[in-house]
Amino acid sequence: MRTLLSFLLVLISVLSFAESMTFVDEEKVDSLENKLMIVDGDDKLELLLKLCKELVEKNSDKCIAYAEEALELSQKLNRPKAQVKALIFLGREDSNFGNYFEGLQHFKEAADIADCEKDDKGLVDSWNEIGITYFNMSSYEEAQSFYFKALKKAEEIDYKERMIGMKNNIAIIYSIYKDHEKALELFYSLLEIYENEKDLFHFALTSVNIANIYDEIGEYEKGFQYLNSAVPIFTESGNNLMLTSTLNNRGVIFLKLNKKKEALADYHQALEISEKNNYDNGIVSSSVNLGEFYLNEKEFEKALNFFKKALKISLENLDKASIKDSYAGMAKVYTLQRNYHEALKMTKLFMTHKDEIFNEQTQKQISELQIKYETEKKEEEIELLQIRMRTQRRNQIILVVGLIVISLLILRVLYLKQLNFKRKNLLLEQVSLMDKLALEKMNSEKREKDLENLRLHEEMLANEEINRLEQLKFQEDLKHKERELAANALHVVSKNETLESLKRSVETVLVSDKEDIQSSLKRLIQEIEGNINLDQDWEIFKMHFEEVHQDFFKRLVERYTDLNTNDLRFCAYLRLNLDAKEIARILNISVNAIEKRRYRLRKKLDLDSSDNLFEFLSNF
């Protein structure tokens, strides 16, 4: 069964910044921009921050430009609170683009300024954004740590807006960690706050969150009660999107309570509202739920119609998860109808989309781990550089103070010596003193220049180390992609070998005189042969190959226009330095056939027998 929204995660964005909305108020932005042209100083700074507030995460280019201008102006006017706000806006845009490391640097700089200036609200806002950024990086422990710090500070200064947001965000992390007791405790406290403030919308959302937890722990009656309280609120407020989701949720719980009639009514009502308001996700969710319902009731034609309806919209919106669910439902229907041909077809489509979703999720997890690793590594490097710079500054200060003390001592000695000379030598001694002072100045300037050169040299070494680390990362990424390609090729080998083994086993059985068995096995062999070299395997391999060797095929075809698809595939395997036996296993042909292909390819590429084919292809 499916629902429309995951309320536990919706509230993160709702409460991370109270002013965040979906659309830009163009008239308000135009008005603020017109005023911006005729003001300066603090008035201009205030307008810049208001524009950032209207544009953040909606018009990133404008928001970044105004935030940078506000940051520069706040530094010039010495307005640290405004500087904190500008840095937070810049950090939010960084995080919005997935640049979490840069976002964290802006937020941490904002927190440092707010802490120094005793700007408690700015400090809470900064910690809150750091927590949200770590949450988006799936670093839940770090996120929770900053949420708790922000909540404690918000309670100290009675910052109610952030207190509510922090409790909600902490409750969400508890839900992720399956600590349902603590999550419910926080959600209950939020429910009481919303009830006292008569904030019905967030009261209903929190009720749905609580219902989802009770559903997860199997206390369906309690979950039903909270969903029941949310439905009339969404109905009266006209929030049809939330209403359809809640109805779908309640329908799921009705089924778990064996109240089929009530569940069916909720599913149909959710579908009707979604169709009336053109909510594609709502139509798909309700249709899948109805398909599952009628499937369990063995009303197969109704179930099939609803699954087809969900599939049509899902294909239009490229919603892979819903496409997978629709194919799965249709496969079940066809299986129960004993239409095994269509059931097999739907099952294959279901598995294809399931594998795609799994691969995407795996890649996303790898990317998140990579981002987390790189962020931690960059933070460590920055901390080491900052320590080194502080040490250099301290040494420079000590050296300058020492030079000043030495200079003062020299002046004192010269002054005492001057008093002991006779009056007639006063002018000569003064000239000598001036020469000595000039010499000391030259030496001092030379030492300062040497120190500056040393600092520049160390800075250059640091930059070289950074470049070296970046180059190592690039090489590791390249090796990783090569390993993925090799794994892909071995997967194809394994699959083809398995299918070949199956084929030989079936051919052995064909010796039998039983005609029915022979007929069935012949069809199975045909199907296996049709699956040995699916184009899908090549397309997936080609996609990964192009990520590592960009424009390889494009450059080949531009230079040798008569190369066909099989030639390009063969070139790709040769570019990976696979031997003839490995390529033969992948293509399911003999080694002798591979050598013939290699000979024909050499002729198309105008290569002599002495030319190394792998080295030649490596240049593309």
Provide an overview of this structure.
- The protein has about 625 residues and is an all-alpha fold.
- Among the domains are: about 1-175, Serine Threonine Protein Phosphatase 5, Tetratricopeptide repeat, CATH 1.25.40.10; about 550-620, Arc Repressor Mutant, subunit A, CATH 1.10.10.10.
- About 85% of the residues lie in helices and about 0% in strands.
- The protein has 26 helices and no strands.
- α4 runs antiparallel to α5, α11 runs antiparallel to α12 (about 220-235) and α19 (about 425-510) packs across α24 (about 580-585).
- It is flat and about 135 Å long.
- The chain starts with 6 loop residues before the first helix and ends with a helix.
Topology diagram in text:
Blueprint (H helix, E strand, L loop, with lengths): L6 H10 L9 H11 L4 H15 L4 H18 L2 H17 L3 H17 L3 H17 L3 H17 L3 H17 L3 H17 L3 H17 L3 H18 L2 H17 L3 H18 L2 H17 L3 H18 L2 H17 L3 H81 L5 H84 L5 H18 L2 H14 L3 H8 L5 H11 L4 H8 L3 H14 L8 H6 L2
Helix pairs in contact: 1-9, 2-3, 3-4, 3-5, 4-5, 5-6, 5-7, 6-7, 7-8, 8-9, 9-10, 10-11, 11-12, 11-13, 12-13, 13-14, 13-15, 14-15, 15-16, 15-17, 16-17, 17-18, 18-19, 19-20, 19-21, 19-24, 24-25
